[in-house]
Structure formats: structure tokens, C-alpha cells
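Because showing beats explaining, we let one protein speak, sequence and C-alpha cells together, and leave readers to judge.
___
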Amino acid sequence: MNRVHIKTYGCQMNERDSEAVAAMLRARGYRIVPDEDNCDILLLNTCSVRDAAEQKAIGKAGYLQHRKKKQPDFILGILGCMAQNRGASLLDQLPDLDLIVGTQKFHQVPDYLDNLRAARDAGVPIGETIVDIAEEAGSQNTIKDHVVPEAAEHAPRQVTAFVSIQQGCNMDCSFCIVPKTRGDERSRPMDDIVAECQGLVARGVREITLLGQIVTSYGRRDYVHTGGVTPFVQLLDRVHAIEGLERIRFTSPHPRGFKDDLIEAYARLPKLCGYVHLPMQSGSDRILKAMNRPYTRERYRQIVEALRAAQPDMYFSTDVIVGFPGETEEDFQQTRDLFEACNYDMAYIFKYSIRTGTPAAELGDQIPEEVKEARNQALLDILQRNSLRRTATLVGKIEEVLVEGPDKNGQRFTGRTRGNRVCVFDADPRLVGELVPLRIERASVSTLYGELVLAGVPIAERPMPSSGWK
């Protein structure tokens, strides 16, 4: 009765939190299983960024409650942002939950599950649901464990990894629930982060993504800005120096964090991939002010141009909200113009949804759903054209790809370019973890298809590289 399935909703931070919970549970003797139908314990790690995300998780939990009637020993828990946001009020809709754990208490999950299982093994009624959404000093330092496959000798090699460096947010954007669900900014010690990265590289990881709610705010209250170099760039320098690491990415930043030192880092740090996620949210200065976003459309455009000057082949993705309260056609046109001018390769476009407890929830002049939908589709159309145009330019060219492993169908292999484009190709399993040259033969909106090349030698006759293609 120790089989655990963790279902994750939302962002890469949630994925990383789930990885840490899984690693802690494995260390305690639990088995992490991929099939929710064959588990004894099911944990939903939830998202609260939009109401739809919460409703999806609530619907799933409601469905799973029926399972408890047939399987009395089945344990159901909700973790993460929705647990933090709603707390015990979730029991009004989901009275059969066993566990509700907030974002600063992930490390307590093994103890709580041990207690629940011990009570059931002893035939003792569990009684009240365990609810823990309290703040905890130093909780950012607990997200440091990584999943260790139970049959490591037979498991696919882990080539990429997320490393949490900072949690919480002090930006107080008027539309955002994250400061409530994740708390104030809290950064991990730089030495601990570097040691974690070194350990991952020693285990075969070749690409690391540094994670934070506002990752570029890392250490701003904990470390000195030395010679105009921010703590975040100091961290990038130290991670870049790790021998054996091939690539560095980070997410999610804030435009405010792109000072000269970070822009220059893209020109001088070869391991820092030429891909930037740069949330815009709106192209209207009036709406940006209402959102409490401390930059203008002009400043945003300057950052994009400076980054492209540092790396001319830079790839960009962004976040945009359409239909923010009071957004006029003129405001949206300004967003559309800036969106088109920035020529994004990828974007997450959201229709504004009210998040109770945020300042924007109290604003009048809500935008009709059909208007939001039309504006959303207009940006999606632009994005599709931009993305197709960019991928079309790659056909016939050779791109450096990090081979990550088999694709989802298990028939071919997959990896990513430095610009974060997914590639599908034929390869030898021994190439997993290697940087290889891939000639792009065709392209869709988001995926590249190609053939490995090595000085014109057919794949069957190629020697295996010892340290990757450079």
C-alpha cells in the first residue's frame, strides 16, 4: 500500500516541486508509479494562476473521491498553489480529501503520508483532514532533491534538469495570485545551488534550467552587486564554470531584471542558450500601469533589441493577457503591434480571468468573453505565422541538438536546439546526452524533423562521439 502517483498541473515550478516530493517519498520507501489506476495514494499538485486551472483540478479530485467508496484505504491529497490559495475551504467541495498541503510545506508530505498509513494500518479512523498551508522559514531550501529512478540501471538517462533557485514574488502585479500562493521572495544560498548543479552534472545531466517565480530577482537582498554584476548573473557565471555542463536556461524572469549585465551575459557566456522568455503581458502603457507592471512598451522594446544585438539569432517567447479590465480596442491594438514587432517564436496567450483576492478582481469594466476570445485568436494567428516563418528558415540548415531520449512514441529520438525548438530524428541510443549536428529536413509550427550528420558519414557508419559535437 505504498504506491504513489503524482499528477502535476501548471508551470515548470510545479513540475520541479513534484520531482522533489517524489524524491523525498522514494527515500522514505514509497514507490512512484506512472499509472493513476494502480496507485494507493494520489497527489494532485495544483495551479491557481487561472480559475480554469483550479476548476480542472477540483473536477479531477471530485471524480477521484468516488474511488474512495470502492477502495477505503485509498489516500487522496491536494498540494501546491490551489491548496495554498483555498486551504480548508476546499473541503466544502471535496469533503473526502485526506491531505491539503501548501507551497511551503512540500517537504512535510512524507511525514503526513506516514501518519495516514499508520492510522489505517492500525484500523484507527483518520478523523479530520490534514491541512497545512502555514508559512515556513527556509522552505525554499527544501526543493533540492531530484527523482532517482527505482531501477536506475534500466532507466533512461536524465539529460536535463530543473534547479529551483528562488521562490515567491514581491512584484504584486494586480492580476496575479502568485504572491498569495507562493509568498514573499526567498532565495537559496548560491553555494548550495552550485553544489546541486555539480551533482546533477556528475550524474550525466548536460542542460540545467534555473527556476524561480521571478528568477532574475535572485539574491537581490542577500548578495552584494559586485562591479555592477547582479547576484543572478554572478550565479550564472558560477554555474557556467561547471565542467561537463553544456547548456544553461532560466525561467521565469521579469523585464525589470534585464539590466546591462544580464544582456551582456548572452554575448559572453557560450553555455547560456539563445532563448529568452520575456513576459510582456500588455503593449499598452495604460494597461501596464493598471497591471502594476513597472516598465513601458518602449522599455520592453529596448530590451528585446538589446538582446538581439547581443545574440542576433535569439529566440523569444512571452506571456500576454488579453481582456484585462478596461482594455479598449486601442489598448489591444498597441499590444498587437508590439507583439508583431517582437516577432515571437512562442507565446502563452491568456484571456484574463478574475482571481479573487487580487486588486484587479475589484476593477469594473470587465471585458465580454467574446471580445477576449477574438483578441486571443488574433494574437494566436500572428504567433502561428511568426513561428512557421522562423522554422521555415531552418529547413536545410544544421542545428546543434542535445539528444534527450526516445520520443513519446518510442520510435525515434528527440532533443532541443539552443533556441528551444523540439526536434525529432533517428539516432543510436548511445547518443543520448550528446550534442549532435542535425540537418533540418522539414518543420511544423513547433517541431523540427531532421537527420543527424557527421561529416557526411551515414548514421550506421559513424563513430560514437566521446564528448559531444561542438
User: Anything to note?
Assistant: The longest strand covers residues 398-406.
